[in-house]
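Researcher: Here's a chain I'd like modeled. Treat it as a single chain, no partners, no ligands.
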Amino acid sequence: VSAKWTDENNVDMSSFDYRTFWDKAWDSALATNQTLSRIQKKEVKSPPLTEQSQVTKPCPKVYIYDTASSHRAKKRDKVFGEIKKELNRYHRHTDQFSFALILEYRLRRSSQCYTADPDEADLFYVPLHTKPKKHSEWVKTCVSSEKSNITALLERLHHLNPATACRHFFVVSKGHYVSRNCSGTWYRPVPQLRNTLRLAYSHLDFIRDTKDGGNTTSHLRADEKTRSEYPNLFSVPYPSSVHYSSKIDTSQYPPPWRQSTGR
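Model: Modeled as a single isolated chain. Structure tokens:
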């Protein structure tokens, strides 16, 4: 459980208890969910906005690196897609490979979840190749840039060290396998990045149909070779086409979850 990071002389630089850290993070997330659920059921009163962050702790503080390969879209329509005017203001033509763009856009505009101070950060996001891409584009991107830029990338990660490595994370807005040519970061990472987290669309416990019509459980989670080549891999969902904005007049345009209680 405790991971060690050694220098070129094989000297232990530090030790960090990953299980304890993430167990505490998970307990905090569960407590937050229970609090929000009780507020929604009106079992407890919703605290004033000025106190909500202290009561519910909605998310960890995230520091975002400025990387050379980051594709930061500043306009909402470029991130979420244009509004589907034939439906309502919450539905957009969202690119299915835009999770990384949406994540960075949301984080940078959150007063509760974003921090520019690395000393108060709970997590560190390393945005790499965030422009939405299909499989073939991922292959070309990784081949042309990753191997030659790994040293430059490490030099940019000023806050990466043995104690914070497990709190750094990367995102691939597709299945993890498209990043096979991104060696050193995603695939077979260098020692400095081995304990970092990797988020992708890959479902680690999915059930797929076989040719004979039966079902079989994927062994991706139990595949030691895959876990070794893509360490600390976690699944995230495709982005939805429904996006809430506090700037929308909900009295005139009620969000979908207010239009039906059959959920």
